[in-house]
Amino acid sequence: MQINWQKTPLLPAIAQDHETNEVLMLAYMNEEAYNLTLSTGFAHYFSRSRQRLWKKGESSNHTQEIKDILLDCDADTLVLKIKQNGVACHTGTKSCFFTSVVQEKRVLEQEVDTDAVYGVVDTLYHTVLERKNDTTAEKSWTKKLLNDKELMLSKIREEADEVCVAIDKESDEQVIYESADLLYHTVVGLGYRDISPDRVKQELARRFGTSGIEEKESRGQ
Predict the structure, then answer these.
(1) In which element (H, E) is residue 206 found?
(2) Which comes out higher in pLDDT, residue 123 or 171?
(3) Closest CA to 9 of 37, 36, 28, 35
(4) What is the average per-residue pLDDT within 187-200?
(5) Binning pLDDT at 50, 70 and 90, where does residue 103 land?
(6) How large is the greatest C-alpha to C-alpha distance in the chain, in angstroms?
(7) Measured between alpha carbons, how far is 41 from 180 in angstroms, rounded to an integer?
(8) CB atoms within 10 A of CB 109
(9) What residues form DSSP beta bridges with 83?
(10) pTM for the structure as a whole
(11) What is the helix (H) or strand (E) element at residue 168, kind and residue range?
């Protein structure tokens, strides 16, 4: 049975422990990710939020070794039988499926330091998304910002101005403090729009080798 990539350009791909059959995560594959997975023996996916191809574990080294790939009867869903090196979830748990809907609580505990593995900004962004989807987090400042766009925008403007003032007149410590405030509120804004910080990193990477003047001039074309 062949996959019709024209009909289904993105296929759900379920990663399952090849020994225990525990379901670890769900991601998506396009044709390029699928072919790379087959040729390298390691799981590759296409990220809808980052809008790019990625190898599982590319930054954390928590790679997924392919033992088998199963295609369902409609040829539009994949099951990857894998050996998980490290953990599968960005939260630090082995599986992404750790919250019971019936019991309304986490059923697994965090296993690793996600700040060290994934970076503070990425961890912050995922925390913002968790607050966004959490109906019980009404007392959270992050949730309040996400629910009030005008407040969120005003805070980003306010923090940007405070960074400028700190850079102009205040101590290094105050510059760092105000910059952290601005970064936090900006990441909340990215979460509001469901834009991964990884896409900002990609844009910065694209600009390497291009002068700032050339880049600004290209915007007006």
Answers:
(1) helix 197-207
(2) 171
(3) 28
(4) 92
(5) confident
(6) 67
(7) 40
(8) 8
(9) 65
(10) 0.66
(11) helix 149-169
Q: Tokens 């001039």 appear where?
A: 217
Q: How many residues does this entry show for the chain?
A: 221
174: pLDDT strictly greater than 60: yes
Helix (H) or strand (E) holding 33: helix 31-40
CA distance 18 to 84: 9
- Tell me how far apart the alpha carbons of residues 213 and 100 are, in angstroms, rounded to a whole number: 52
Q: What's the whole-number mean pLDDT along residues 97-110?
A: 73
CA 47, 97, 185: angle at the middle one, nearest 5?
55
pLDDT in tens, 16-56: 999 999 999 999 999 999 999 999 999 999 998 888 999 99
- CA 188/CA 56 separation, integer angstroms: 25
Contacts of 63 (CB under 8 A, 6+ apart): 42, 43, 55, 56, 57, 85, 86
Torsion over CA of 180, 181, 182 and 183, rounded to 10 degrees? 50
* Cα angle 87, 102, 140; round to 5: 70
